[in-house]
Recover the amino acids of this structure.
């Protein structure tokens, strides 16, 4: 007879076999998977609330569970017994536990070519100082792209890489680089504490998740101002929206905007677009290399990349989509939808 963890892992392995990115467990419903962006119900019997509670009790340490009452959810990482890292979010609905699982690393990291990254994105990874933001909406694959770029640095630059992750999605093996991966909650108490630890160990490249609080914002800007390359994630519907959301965390005062503008070296914005042949989705990127005035002078329409004059080093989403259309990899209708959603 399987233990609750073994049974849970069997569900995960089946979801991985389907090629799912997410698994959802809700009381009195069959498990559901998100496959290539589409939610599909698994051909399984409904799960009882008591069975989901058994999974939660076996997977989540006792101490974080009270956090559900305060924050509304608790999040942990879980490594599947037969390989693969997952991020588990547990919350409650109608008095029962619900579980959402993001399947992180059961597949090898793609190469930059496989991730459809333009050469301009890799040029940003050769910098020795400043801030680069990997941006996009939730579920667009930006975490995979972030790790792909860090792995490219690992393979091509003799540098000291430090990461501050919550959670850790991939275990990176040193190649040309030295790598220290720190996970918030396990190795350090907070993102800001992880940055402080890295600053005391002479790092060259710092990888962050999202910048969610003023302390992390301040620490990241200090690091990017002192001969370090900082690569962080940002959420948004386009490049400018992602930048504005980070600035909102920092306080948006004029001196803060000027400081941010002085260290920002680029924004890599990503979306996933359905392949024309129906075989999944393909990432498409926009790369913005801004001048200081782009941020220092706030405009009513945000910070959209100007289409009439694209600075050197930039890549416009519409041009990348046009290339994919020309290769018949995406349909014109899907390309137009992305244009409309990001305001291109």
């Amino acid at each position: 007879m399987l233990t609750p963890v073994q049974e849970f892992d069997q569900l995960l392995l089946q979801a991985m076999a389907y090629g799912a990115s997410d698994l959802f467990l809700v009381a009195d419903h069959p498990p559901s998977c998100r496959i290539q962006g589409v939610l599909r119900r698994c051909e399984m019997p409904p799960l009882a609330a008591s069975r989901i509670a058994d999974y939660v009790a076996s997977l989540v340490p006792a101490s974080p569970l009270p956090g559900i009452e305060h924050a509304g959810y608790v999040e942990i990482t879980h490594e599947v017994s037969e390989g693969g890292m997952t991020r588990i979010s547990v919350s409650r609905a109608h008095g029962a536990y619900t579980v959402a699982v993001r399947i992180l690393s059961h597949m090898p990291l793609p190469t930059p070519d496989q991730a459809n990254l333009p050469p301009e994105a890799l040029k940003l990874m050769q910098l020795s100082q400043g801030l680069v933001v990997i941006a996009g909406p939730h579920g667009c694959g930006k975490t995979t792209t972030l790790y792909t770029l860090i792995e490219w640095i690992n393979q091509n630059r003799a540098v000291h890489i430090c990461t501050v992750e919550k959670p850790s999605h991939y275990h990176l093996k040193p190649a040309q680089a030295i790598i220290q991966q720190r996970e918030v909650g396990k190795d350090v108490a907070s993102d800001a504490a992880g940055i402080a630890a890295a600053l005391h160990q002479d790092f060259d490249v710092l990888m962050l998740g999202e910048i969610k609080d003023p302390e992390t914002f301040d620490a990241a800007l200090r690091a990017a101002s002192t001969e370090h390359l900082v690569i962080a994630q940002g959420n948004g519907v386009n490049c400018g929206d992602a930048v504005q959301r980070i600035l909102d965390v920092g306080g948006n005062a004029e001196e803060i905007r000027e400081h941010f503008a002085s260290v920002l070296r680029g924004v890599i914005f990503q979306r996933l677009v359905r392949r024309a042949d129906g075989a999944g989705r393909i990432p498409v990127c926009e790369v913005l290399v801004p001048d200081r005035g782009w941020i220092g002078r706030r405009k009513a329409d945000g910070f959209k990349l100007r289409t009439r004059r694209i600075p050197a080093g930039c890549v416009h989403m519409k041009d990348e989509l046009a290339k994919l259309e020309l290769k018949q990899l995406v349909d014109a209708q899907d390309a137009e939808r992305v244009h409309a959603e990001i305001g291109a």
